[in-house]
Amino acid sequence: MYISEVSGHHNAALAIEKALKTLSPETEVLNINAFKYTNPVSEKVVNHLYMTVIKKAPQIWDYLYDNPEVARKLENIKQKIHKFNSPKFKNLFDDFKPDAVACTQAFPCGMVADYKKTYKSDLPLVAVLTDYIPHAYWIYDTVDYYIVPSEDVGKNLEKKGVSPEKIKPFGIPFDLKFNIPVDKSGIMKKLKLDPGAPVILIMGGGHGLGPIQTIIKSLEKTDKEIQEIIIAGNNARLYKSLKRSIKKCRKNIVLFRYVNNIHELMGISSLIITKPGGITIAESMAKALPMIIIKPIPGQETSNTIYLTQRGAAIKVGKPKNINQVVESLLGNPQKLERLAEAARKIAKPNASLDTAKLLLKLCDG
To answer: Do residues 101 and 125 make contact, with C-beta atoms less than 8 angstroms apart?
Structure first.
C-alpha cells in the first residue's frame, strides 16, 4: 500500500512487488493506493494541497513535518479518519484475504494498524520507510516489522519506543534492474551522445521540482565539454519551457518527460544533480553515481541530505547559480569523483527489495 501515484513511495511498492514475483512467481499481489481506495475525493484535494505547499511555502511543510506538537493536536482527527476507514479496509481484506500487508507510506500504515486493533486482527503488517527520518506517524504497536534505510534510522526508532526485534535495516526498496550493468555504448549511441564526454543527469523527481532552469543556465558557463540529460517528470509546464530554452544552449542536451529507463540514464552518467528523494538516492547509490543535491524539500529530504553529506556520498549546493563551479571542480578531480562513488557503494543496500520480499514471504508462510 502507498498513497501517492507519482512518488518514490509508489516506486518502492512496485519494487517490492517485482521482488516478490521474482522469488515466488505464484504469489498474488495487490498493489493499491490506499487513500484513493478509501477517500477518492479527499485524495485529490490533499495531493493538490501538498504540492502547493511544497512549491510555494516549503517552510510550512518544514514546520508540520515530524512536529510532536502538531502530531499531538492531530491525534483525535487521525483516529476519527482511521475509524471511518476501518470498515472499508475490512471489506478489502475480506475480499482479497492477504497473508501480509506492507506499507511504503505512514498514512496507510496507520490505517491498517488501527484496523488490526479495531478488529483484533493478527494480520502481519510491515512498515517500509523510504526516507532517513522515522517520524512519529509511523509508530504503532500493531506494526510487526519496520524496514528502515539504515542502522541509524533503526536506532532512532528504538528511541521512539520501537522494539529492536521489529527493526530490519534492509535499506530502501528499489527496482532490481538498477543492480544490473547497462550497455553504455549502445545507450550513448541511441541518445546521440559523445562517448568521450561526461554526462550530467539532472532530475527534479517525478514532479519535476527544483531550479532546473537555473542549473542549465549555470552549466552553460562551464568550459568543460559536458552533455546533459534532463528529466522533467510529469511537469508539463517545465517540459514545454525547457523544450524552447535548450535550443539556445551550447551544450548537448537530451530532454525527457517521465521515463521508465532511469537505470539506463544513471548507468551512462558521470554524476547526478537532483532532489534527494529516498528512492532516487537509493537508486543512485546502487549505481555508485556521485550526487550533487540541490534544493531539498524541508523535512524528509533535508534528513536525506544530512545522511548523505555526512557520509561523503553527496555534495549539497546552496546556490543553484553556482552549480557550474562545483561540476567543474568534480570533473577536474577524478579522485574526488571516485571518493563520492566509493562512499555511495559503501552505504548502498542493493538487496533491499529482495530482503523485504523474503521477509513478507516468510510472514505469509506463518
So the answer is: yes
pTM for the model stands at: 0.89
pLDDT at 361: 97
Give the H or E element holding residue 201.
strand 199-203
Instruction: For residue 31, give the 3-state DSSP assignment.
Output: coil
Contact 89, 108 (CB under 8 A): no
Q: Which residues contact 68 (CB under 8 A, 6 or more apart)?
A: 136
Q: What's the CA gap between 288 and 276, in Å, rounded?
A: 15
Query: CA of 313: how far to CAs of 274, 288, 297, in Å?
Result: 13, 9, 19
Of 168, 178, 180, the residue nearest 356 (C-alpha)? 168
Give the Cα separation of 330 and 290 in Å (integer). 9
Q: Is 99 exposed, middle or buried (0-12, 13-18, 19+ CB in 10 A)?
A: middle
Residues 30 and 10: their CA atoms lie apart, in Å, by 13
The length of the chain is 366
User: In which residue are the cell numbers 523485504 written?
Assistant: 356
**Ordered structural domains, the chain, with CATH:** 8-172+350-364 (no CATH), 177-347 (3.40.50.2000)
Residue 68 has pLDDT above 80, yes or no: no
**pLDDT digits 0-9 by tens, 323-352:** 999 999 999 999 999 999 999 999 999 999
Q: Which amino acid is at 239?
A: Y
210 — pLDDT class (breaks 50, 70, 90): confident
Q: Are 267 and 186 in contact (CB under 8 A)?
A: no
Pairing of strands 271-274, 199-203: parallel
Has residue 161 got a pLDDT over 90? yes
* Lowest pLDDT segment from 59-73, 211-225, 287-301: 59-73
For the sheet with 271-274, list strands across it.
Answer: 252-256, 227-231, 199-203, 271-274, 291-294, 314-317
**To which H or E segment does residue 222 belong?**
none
The rounded distance, in Å, linking the Cα atoms of 253 and 187 is 15
Longest distance between any two alpha carbons in the chain, whole Å: 66
